[in-house]
Amino acid sequence: MVLSYLKLTRCVAVTLALVGVGSRFRGVDGSDRRPHRIQHGPCSYTFLLPEVESCHPSPAFEVTNSLQRDTPSSVEHHWNNKRLQQLQNVLENNTQWLLKLESYIQDNVKIEMAEIQRNAVQNQTAAMLEMGTNLLTQTAEQTRKLTDVETQVLNQTSRLEIQLLETSLSTNKLEKQLMVQTQEIGKLHEKNSFLEQKVLDLAGKHETELQEIKAEKLEMQKLVVRQSEIIGELEKQLTVATLNSSMLQKEQSSLTETVQQLISLVSQLNELPKVQNEELAIFKDCAEIYKSGLTASGVHILHFPNSSQTVKAFCDMETSGGGWTVFQHRKDGSIDFHRTWKEYKTGFGDPAGEYWLGNEFTYQITAHGMYTLRIQLRDWEGNEAYSLYDHFHLGSEEQNYRLHVRGYSGTAGRTSSFSSSGTDFSTKDVDNDKCGCKCAQMATGGWWFDACGPSNLNGIYYSSSTTTMKFNGIKWHYWKGPSHGLKVTTMMIRPTDF
């Protein structure tokens, strides 16, 4: 398209040049001659040629139709010679002009061809550069679009990863909840199996007792018949002997009253020193009782510090020098330790058997002095061990009876199984542990649960015949493991300066 434009421009320039040259051949009278146009390829050439109409005869001659005369006149012959001479001159001039024009056209064509070639190369180079620029622009645009797409893909991938992470966290949370539910279901299954077995045992015992009662009933009926016969005979004999023994009965009743009075007097004399000692002395712990001279283990009355309120506690006067105030003891499973916060606060059970002394009393006495804690353990095989803590005290109820212990030693494991210092007390109705699973309900009992932890001496009391996993049983992990049940546990305290 560029080459055609250059050719057309060149042709127009040549045409204008020819017209300019031809303008010199105007008539004498100044009238314009008719132009002649020649088409050569895409170019057209325009020039002026002399014409007959531009040659006018002299006024002396009047030629109306010279071409139709048979013989021209002398004047016409003279005019024709002159006309011929003019035509020859014009033809020579035109021939010279055409030669010059041809030379000019050839020079212009050479110049134009060189320019056309140079312009073609430049135009091709420019076109190639323009095409390259367009390609670079398109490449940059495609690169930008690909970058945008890649950014969107990365953003979408990041969002998907975040969603996947959130889904994974939700799945882990659901798995933990499912595990907790599974554990609770397992506990319920265990309790259900235990209750079913107990019901079956009771049913068997009831059936056996019923059979025994029936047999005893038959025997009793036989005995009643025999007794009735004997009573009849005895009544007869009694009627005879009544008359003879009236005096003996009076003497016997008199002797009986005398004996009862003597027995009552002896019992009062035996209990008098003990009652007087306990009524006159006020003891806050078993160490004071031991120092007062009462060195036999047993149940004693203790007083709250700075208060008239009392509580019964068992005093161990034999273990490691005695003077121990027992505030937890288990030996046969006769007492349910899955109790409420209030029950653990005030205490429950029988001090002569299984019992919990009470968190409030333990807090009161440990708040007014330095105490040592000893935990005595025995398994079903008869093995014994202990854990000793040099310093022990509890926080107030407002502090959830927070545990404070330090200075561990003993034989119940190289590492202490007790909860760490600063752990709050939890029960089935008051959850203060650091686990979302409520350890007091899962592991049962009231204890210082951190995140369920390695110990719980207030769990369910399982007998030695139980073979199932005892997650909620009595445990002291670093001595017997997480599921090995214990037979006897005792928690007791005494002053560090005893």
UniProtKB/TrEMBL annotation:
GO BP terms in the entry: angiogenesis
Cellular component aspect of the GO annotation: extracellular space
CDD domains in alphabetical order: FReD
Transmembrane segments: none
Residues spanning the signal sequence: 1-30
InterPro entries (alphabetical): ANG-1/2/4 (IPR057439), Fibrinogen-like_C (IPR036056), Fibrinogen_a/b/g_C_1 (IPR014716), Fibrinogen_a/b/g_C_dom (IPR002181), Fibrinogen_C-term_domain (IPR050373), Fibrinogen_CS (IPR020837)
Domain Fibrinogen C-terminal, chain residue ranges per copy: 277-497
Gene3D superfamilies per record: Gamma Fibrinogen, chain A, domain 1
UniProt entry keywords in alphabetical sequence: Angiogenesis, Coiled coil, Disulfide bond, Glycoprotein, Signal
NCBIfam families on file: GGGWT_bact (NF040941)
Name used for this protein in its record: Angiopoietin 2b
Organism: Latimeria chalumnae (Coelacanth)
